[in-house]
Amino acid sequence: MKNNQELMEKIVSLCKRRGFVFPGSEIYGGLANSFDYGPLGVELKNNIKNIWWKRFVHQRDDMVGIDAALIMNPKVWSSSGHLATFNDPLVECKKCHHRFRADHVKAEKCPDCKGELTEAKQFNLMFKTFLGPVEDADNTVYFRPETAQAMFVDFKNVLETSRKKVPFGIAQIGKAFRNEITPGNFIFRTREFEQMEIEYFVKEEDWKKIFEYWKKEMWSWMTGELGLDKKNIHELDVPDNERAHYSKKTIDLEYDFPFGRDELYGLAYRTDFDLKNHYKEPPYEDAESGEKFYPHVVEPTWGVDRSVLAVLCDAYVEEKDRVVLKLKPNLAPYKVAVFPLLKNKPELVEKAKEVYNMLKKEFNVAFDDRGNIGKRYYSQDEIGTPYCVTVDFDTLKNDTVTLRDRDTMKQERAKISDLVNRISESLNG
Ligand code: GAP
Predict the structure, then answer these.
(1) Contact partners, residue 138, CB within 8 Å, separation at least 6
(2) What pLDDT band is residue 3 in, cutting at 50, 70 and 90?
(3) Atom of ligand 1 nearest to the CA of 148
(4) Which of 138, 168, 226, 275 is the most exposed place for a label (fewest CB within 10 A)?
């Protein structure tokens, strides 16, 4: 396990220096563990979300997507049980008054000053705001703490417009908000984050089989699309007293982050709890038998920010003379970088721009004419660019370039006309 604070600091520093992730509102001193994705971070994050959507929505016949409002009618949250039970146990130090999540504190002493802690009390994690100009109880609303509830609340509308039959799923990617007592570990635990969730509707008798099926799908996503090393992934069967109020069975998929092993994703059997709470009558009718019933729900859920973090930690490699992000090419912010061999030779720069513009029609491409080629390779390796293309004097004669592979560092001569195919092939692996 990579339990290494120094490694984490290096990753956080690379993220800031190279424009993956910045501290939010930094010029005003930041804001309690909020982060902004920079130019490279947004590319990595969008790649993850787009690949997810392609795999789990577009490539399947049994899935449709939605994109719901962040603020829903507050009755959603009383029906779903979140207002009553979406709590974490809070303790406060009697000496320094710092607050902690009781289940995160070891030895029942304040982690900051070793002072005595108060008894735990329940703290609701829902983020409150007001709808309209009057700030009173009647206008209190909440930012959603999970994207999931919209799939239940919109269930009938989706059913009527998509004509899907059980088993089928509704997918959504979007922001969720939780007033976490102790956010921390960079983008691992924040108060505003993104989720990719599927509510998969099944007949009650099928839930176990489908639960196992989704567990395999999640493993295949982690080791396939994200390219995570399976040695770093572990399953935790969450015990009864630690499961969310809606779940009858939960498996956490944990990852060995540099700060320790912790939850990356979750898979829960939510029974018919949510649909029963939202609908007085069974919302589903079997087309053949005419039987009306409440479908049961298997919910695989993926945190987007934790995906980004796991991918960065897994891909970060220090070699003798370089730092490399060995990102899968499909995730890399830039697929290729183009360099003119020399900056002060206009004919090389012009040709390199031509190659750059051609490749830009297909991929996100970097252009760099600073320093020497070695420094440019170093710079692209550190942000995970799978290929570098150098335009030199031979290019002007025979339309070939030097194509350099990030992982092997091998260089070969390639025809400009072959570049798009060569790079595209690597994205399918
Ligand atoms: N709908 C089910 C649900 O929300 P969850 O385990 O509470 O389940 C799902 O959250 C995923 O969302 C987690 O596995 C994690 O990846 C991500 N997540 C939860 N809280 C988070 C936070 N405070 N910051 C970043 N990601 C978070």
Answers:
(1) none
(2) low
(3) 1
(4) 138
